[in-house]
Amino acid sequence: MNLFINKSSQKKNQKGFTLVEIMISMALGLVIAGAVIQIMVSNSVTEKLNRAMASTQESGRFIINRLRGEILMVGLYDQMNPKLNINVDVVDENNFVRNHPIILPNQFAVRTSLGAVQGSSGGNDTLVVSLQSNMDCRGYALGYLNEEEFYVVNEYFVADNKLKCRGFDGRYLRGQKVADGHNSHNSITLLDDVTNFQVTYGITDLASTAGSAIPTRFITADGIQLAIDTGKTIVALRIALVVRADSDITVKTKPFFRLLNEANYVPDDNGLYKSFETTITLRNMKNFVRSNA
Fold this sequence. Notes:
The chain is of the alpha+beta class. The chain has helices at 7-13, 19-71, 90-99, 170-173, 206-209, 224-229, 283-291; strands at 127-133, 150-159, 162-169, 188-192, 194-205, 217-219, 232-244, 257-258, 264-265, 273-281. Pfam families: N_methyl, PilW.
């Protein structure tokens, strides 16, 4: 057996990658790397969008549930409740609350401008409500004893894209007592990034509904006084608001929303927005209407 190997022949049989093959391989590698990067970027954007949408949905549900829980009790007054503070004429106070579940400007001796207001040209509305409770919308007892109930007036409004609330002692507003030291009348923020807040009021007429207390139509705050003067009673509220996602997510086409009675609302930018709406029956006012049918 010939074990001798010709070295020159061995070198001739060795082959490597040509320049063309290397360039093709690099090009394919770049294409594959680009595709992987694109998928990663797309997944990151999708995840960010999903988080923003989930956060906005959670914020909207939170505020709707909170408003529903507080506004559901509007018009409540039980002068027989042993927890009610009776340092005023509770019969007179009962009549006032029953006839003023929604407060309008110039109905109080103090802070006469306080009241429900219809925003102009699609602007934010202001909601002011009356009820008996042991705290205002901020959680303050306003100087009353623990769990002691009193006449509460709560105001809801938007300022600096924040939905806020402010609570008052109704007896102070009616000029029956001085404001307690704890009642600074400062507002608290219920929810950030609220860009639009609208309210309409469901009214009923005893003569036409035979005590059923079903709203016959919904009106704006500027029509409440006329409705009351013509024998109507407020038995429901509709609330709609727009919440902006707390992120830098943008959409290609600027969104628009139709809120209750208003014309289309178009946000200032192409951010991610979502609208929420609810109808709240004022069960105390419905029971009041039924009992007087």
